[in-house]
Amino acid sequence: MEFPTTGQVIECRAAVVWGVGEPFKMETIKVEPPKAGEVRVKIIASGVCHSDLFFMRGGAGPLVFPCVLGHEGAGIVESVGSGVSTVAPGDHVIPLYTPQCYECDNCKSEFTNICTKDEMLQMGGFMSDGTTRFTCNEQVIKHNMGCSTFSEYTVVNETNICKIDPAAALDKVCLIGCAIATGYGAALNTAKVRPGSTVAIWGLGGVGLAATMGAKKAGAARIIGVDVNPAKVEIGKMFGMTDFVNPKDHEEPVEQVLMKMTNGGVDHALECCGIPSCMKSAFAACKRGGGTLTLVGLAPLGEDVPFNAYQFIAGKSINGTYFGGWKSRDQVPKLVEDYLSKQLMVDELITHTLPIESINEAVDLMKKGECVRSIVKF
């Protein structure tokens, strides 16, 4: 299949952030054809994630701007550069902010999913050759997380994309590109939640609810959701939550509430907020002699979290997860298959679907806690 735009510069809509703290601004940008090893994708839909808010607020510093954010998208391949063999024009795909090159030591390792190929270039908003494929009014626009799915057309490395079953609705499975994979995998792959265990999950947003689903899948006997929004109770139960604790309802610290509820602490705590105070609280709620905290949420890069050293001596531990520990190109298509066979809940996370022009409304809904996941569509 060949599209009439193959080899041409495409003008299209994109939501651009021009600087720290600025809202999205709808622009007409130019998207260059893919170079060797690259893929140009027509994005159909994208989730709006707290990590996008992290970048907008300057969590990664000012040097990432101006840029096109978005890393939770799905679309259709429009064209490919030379040497690309795993996807072709017309394929339904999910861009992946966690690449898989199959060549670096990490990709060859069974113990990590964090690919190191072009890592620093992607963090800086560039393609593998140190340039970008986006311009707006002759100004260079940077990429973000190797995806940039808030553009109607985007260019990604072949290492950052996977082909999926075309039977899957793109405006649903886009969430597998971040929220679902991250939270679900955090419980299954990283925390390795044990059957019969007690789990506490801080933050019942999209990632936290996916972690709840993962804990249920792993056979946890008790899953305690911790959130300041009482509206999360019913949807938490839908995903497998057995108990709910709102820190605002208690005078004592929430970790003390949980320790009383669980006779000494939880087996697994998953922090899905990216808030240092919550990380400290979650670690304190872990039981001595085997309790484990898994850090899932993205905190500002300069934040430090102090932990008392004795807690480690007492047998507690901390680990972190990135993209839920999944080997992205190998395993995301399998997660899509699980969705199609109704083994994975995705639709239930979507509370709002908006046109891309309303992306700032989606951000406001997220800030106010009035949505679980909003989808923007082109």
UniProtKB/TrEMBL annotation:
Cofactor list: Zn(2+)
Domain Enoyl reductase (ER): 19-376
One term under GO cellular component: cytosol
Keywords: Metal-binding, NAD, Oxidoreductase, Zinc
Family annotation (PROSITE patterns): ADH_ZINC (PS00059)
Gene Ontology MF: a single term: zinc ion binding
Single GO biological process annotation from the record: formaldehyde catabolic process
The family this protein is said to belong to: Belongs to the zinc-containing alcohol dehydrogenase family. Class-V subfamily.
Its job: Alcohol dehydrogenase. Catalyzes the NAD-dependent oxidation of primary alcohols to the corresponding aldehydes. Oxidizes secondary alcohols to the corresponding ketones.
Protein name: Alcohol dehydrogenase 6
Organism taxonomic ancestry: Eukaryota, Metazoa, Ecdysozoa, Arthropoda, Crustacea
